[in-house]
Amino acid sequence: MAFNEAYIPYGGYWSTPFCRWQGSFANKHSIEFAAEIGRVALDKKGILPSEFDGIILGMTIPQRHCFYGAPWAAGMLGATGITGPMVGQACATSANSIGLATMGIENGVNKSVVVLTCDRTSNGPHLVYPNPLSFGAKPDSEDWVWDNFGYDPFAKNAMIETAENVAKECGITKEEQDEVTFMRYSQYQEALSDGAKFQKTYMVAPIEIKDTRGKKVVATVTGDEGVFPTTKEGLAKLKPVLPDGTVTFGTQTYPADGNAGVIVTTRENAKKLRSKDNIEIKIISYGDGRAKKGYMAQAIVPAGNKALERAGISISDCKAIKTHNPFAVNDIYFAREMDIDIKDMNNFGCSLIYGHPQGPTGARLIIELVEELVLLGGGYGLFDGCAAGDTGAALVFEVTVD
């Protein structure tokens, strides 16, 4: 199914910097923080919360009071009369949240939806589940973040093992992964050039972090926190994480904290809310897919192909491509299968380099995709990424610059 009615107003989106696990955002409540940043961004753009008739909250890691989800976020945002669902599908959360908002516009249920995405991998919950039938009535327990990173109950393997499975089956070497990671690091440096001009088009910064009493400023975040200085020589020295493996700590992403927001609305409202009159952003299609058990990195290909087919275009029609790539393996496999040059994707950065807060990762990548298309004078763009459960999700956009 292709979409015809849903648009994103130019400038109608924002993202915090992403901060490494246990970094400056480690003690910020995800939902409260997302609402706080959303208020700042909307005020800066001159957009009133009353513009929205719906909200979607995308997050994957529980926090206190998240039972109240999107309605609570809407209230803190200042949009007290709206409601909506909380969406969580691991790394595909942003794509699904924007896709769901698009469907609401498409079928006339909504006219303007604010999509807030947020997560904090730091200090994730340690959960206890009562189990009166166990020996001694001992409860079951779970460390939400680390246990889920480390074990898929269906495929019965860790996420890094899915990357190794694909690397082994497809003959992807450590050296190839090192090369791609250094390339992605170099591309990210372009986003920092000219005083981080590219990131300033969407990033809310600086952000002051206060002490527990909310009075003294203890840190000021001006950009991504956790990007590792990367060299070819440094990558070459790193040993694989798993015995007889190929993936190192340098060629995979790292957990992070942050949030991002995107407005999805009608064409008429997009024209009213956009910050530049000559730019139009249309949401064209959505696609998802699933790989065989234990091969998560491969799911991006069926997801991307489905979105492209629904859009009525091919990968060669896309002027920009952004992927969520928790492993360098993902990009190598994607480029081979889609028959594209691996250099022609993930300009200006990706989650492999600036970290992965899960819920908002895709939203930030989509925002960067849109901004890259604007720099290129418009055209089609593809966002694609894998997610837990050997799944993937993709969206196609079209940017027109008059």
Characteristics:
402 residues, alpha+beta, Peroxisomal Thiolase, Chain A, domain 1, six-stranded mixed sheet, 12 helices, 15 strands
Describe, in short, the structure shown:
By secondary structure, the chain is of the alpha+beta class.
Can you describe what's shown?
The structure is a single chain. With 402 residues, the chain is of the alpha+beta class. It has a domain at 159-195 and 280-401: Peroxisomal Thiolase, Chain A, domain 1, CATH 3.40.47. It contains 12 helices and 15 strands. The chain has helices at 30-45, 69-77, 93-106, 144-150, 159-170, 174-200, 232-237, 267-273, 300-311, 328-338, 351-354, 361-375, and strands at residues 7-8, 13-15, 19-20, 54-58, 86-87, 112-120, 126-129, 140-143, 207-210, 217-221, 256-265, 279-290, 318-324, 378-387, 391-401. Strands 2, 3, 4, 5, 6 and 11 form a 6-stranded mixed β-sheet that branches. A hairpin with a 6-residue loop joins strand 9 and strand 10 (217-221). Helix 6 (174-200) crosses helix 10 (328-338). The chain is globular, with a radius of gyration of 20 Å.
Write the layout of secondary structure elements.
Layout: E1 7-8, E2 13-15, E3 19-20, H1 30-45, E4 54-58, H2 69-77, E5 86-87, H3 93-106, E6 112-120, E7 126-129, E8 140-143, H4 144-150, H5 159-170, H6 174-200, E9 207-210, E10 217-221, H7 232-237, E11 256-265, H8 267-273, E12 279-290, H9 300-311, E13 318-324, H10 328-338, H11 351-354, H12 361-375, E14 378-387, E15 391-401
Parallel strand pairs: 4-5, 4-6, 13-14
Antiparallel strand pairs: 1-12, 2-11, 3-11, 6-11, 7-8, 9-10, 12-15, 14-15
Helix pairs in contact: 1-2, 6-10
